[in-house]
TrEMBL record:
Annotated signal sequence range: 1-22
Name of the protein in its database record: Lipocalin-like domain-containing protein
Keyword Signal: yes
Tree of life domain: Bacteria
Organism: Prevotella communis
Entry keyword set: Signal
């Protein structure tokens, strides 16, 4: 009987010590980054929700993109991207016709950058590339065409700001003003 009482007391004390050591508050590897991520989402998350568009037209390239951010972290969008070349014909320089920009060749077919896509988005304060912590807009989206196995987005864009009319982040393949893509709020269609 004494043996049973000792074992019971031991298990009760062990359970109490485990309970005393555990906490319902999670421990973060980088508490500062976690706190700044929360602040970033509180400030800009509700503002980002909605539809945005960006268009840039140059002599050799024209680009349009529309993004719709949902409050649940989902993303839908569409992209239209075309280019042309300046060639010399009979000593005269002329532009070729506009062609859709290609992602590459997939199963012997040219895969174009144009189309609709869907995925997820989130704002984070972190250091994904070893360059120092910054605000990022993490975008992950695949084209809706199931025959295309390329990502429309799969990267962390340096996020600058968003307000009621403007969204600004860096892009790796289309640069607007000083490398920033500057989106305007609202539904729009490409002008080309």
């Amino acid at each position: 009987m004494l043996q049973l009482l000792k074992k019971t007391v031991f298990f009760i004390l062990a359970a109490l010590s485990v309970a005393a050591c555990s906490s319902s508050d999670p421990e973060y590897v980088d508490p500062e980054a976690h706190e700044k991520t929360i602040q970033l989402n509180e400030k800009y998350g509700p503002v980002l929700v909605g539809t945005w568009h960006f268009e840039k037209i140059g002599e050799k390239q024209r680009y349009f993109e529309r993004l719709t951010f949902q409050a649940d972290g989902t993303l839908t969008g569409m992209r239209k991207w075309q280019k042309r070349e300046l060639v010399t014909i009979n000593g005269e320089q002329v532009y070729t016709d506009w062609e859709d920009v290609e992602l590459g060749v997939w199963e012997d077919e040219d895969v174009k950058q144009n189309g609709t896509f869907s995925g997820t988005w989130k704002l984070r304060y972190w250091d994904p590339y070893g360059d120092g912590k910054q605000n990022y807009l993490e975008l992950s989206a695949k084209y809706d065409n199931k025959d295309i196995d390329f990502a429309a987005y799969q990267y962390n864009a340096v996020f600058d700001y968003a307000d009621e009319t403007t969204l600004r982040f860096k892009s790796y393949y289309i640069s607007g003003e000083n490398g920033w893509m500057i989106f305007q709020r609202g539904e729009a269609e490409p002008s080309f």
